[in-house]
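hi! just following up on the protien thing from before. the input was this:
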Amino acid sequence: MTPQEIAAIIDQHERWLTRRKGGVRASLAMRDLSGLTLGGANLRGANLAGANLHRTVLFNCDMEEADLFCATLDRADLRQANLRKVDMRGCSLKRANLNNANLELADFRGGALYGAAGTDSERMRNANSNGADLSNSAMMNCNLKGATLTGANLSGVNLKGADLTGANLTGVNLSEANLTGANLSGANLKGAIVNNAILKNAVLVGANLEEIDMSAVDMTGATLATADEGLPPDIRKILDEHALWIKGQAGKGERAILSGTDLSYMDFTGTNLSGAEIRDAKLIGIRLNGCRLVMSDLSRSVMTNAEIKQAILDGTNLVDTDLSGANLSGTSLGPVDLKDSQGRETGRKWPTNLAGAKLRGANLTGADLRLANLMDADLTDAILTDANLTGANLTDAMLDGVDMQRVVME
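and the predicted 3d structure came back as:
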């Protein structure tokens, strides 16, 4: 097609949209529009099924409710485009730029186009029966609310800051995708492939994470549940009972026993868990900021990349606990003054026990570690700036690469 013919079709389409004389809906199905510059064009509701839009510039285009079924959009420029409710089933969008595009309620499921103009034989064109291929594309700050991406290939995609609230991501390939700061609240990620994906500071409250292997995902700062809402009912009930137990009301409450449970990525910010038993638990990425865990038992638990800032863990048992990459800045891990049955001081102290704990790369800036037992602890590459280690037991502790600026040792 000549540029003049394409321009005429777009002009007629704009007339059709406004119901003016001479208006005709744009039908560009199966057309080769590769490399063209159509920035700012109004293509709302246009038929572009099976079209070749490879390297086409569609910057700031209005394509709401357009038919892009099985279209090729590899390396296309779709920045700031309005793609709301677009049919993108079976599309190929490899290395496309969709930054700041509006893809709300778009359909990215699989699709295959059969038949072609001018031929009698049935053939398949642009088949992506497992879902649209968006691999290595740029989708920063995209609006994908409620979008259907079932089975889509999003490997290597940059989805920083994207809004995927309520999106259907069942079986999606998110390997090595960057979803830093993305909102996935209520999204369905059942069966998704997330190998080496980055979900730093992402929000996944209410998301379906069934049948997913999260072991190789960077979930630093991610929120799966909030302290006020989102915690499983059984956990909430245990916390309520524990609160009554702490108050010491006769016959009321029960000590929290959470040993062996998986509380990974849950948010317990500000909760009082003093005296709780949470041994051998899986607490990866858990948020315990501002919590009280005085005399609690967290021994042998896995707490990698946990957030425990400004918390009180005085006298806590952390023997052989894995706190690698955890943020314990400003946290108190000091001793507890023991009292007798009458509440009188005994003069004895109960130090925090970190014997054999793994603190590789942990942030202990400004932490209180007075009298702490760090025997055989691994503090490789930990940050201890401004920490207080007065009287701490560092026998056979590994201190390679430790930042000990302004540490108080006596």
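The CA atoms of residues 300 and 321 lie 4 Å apart.
Helices lie at 3-17, 233-247.
cheers
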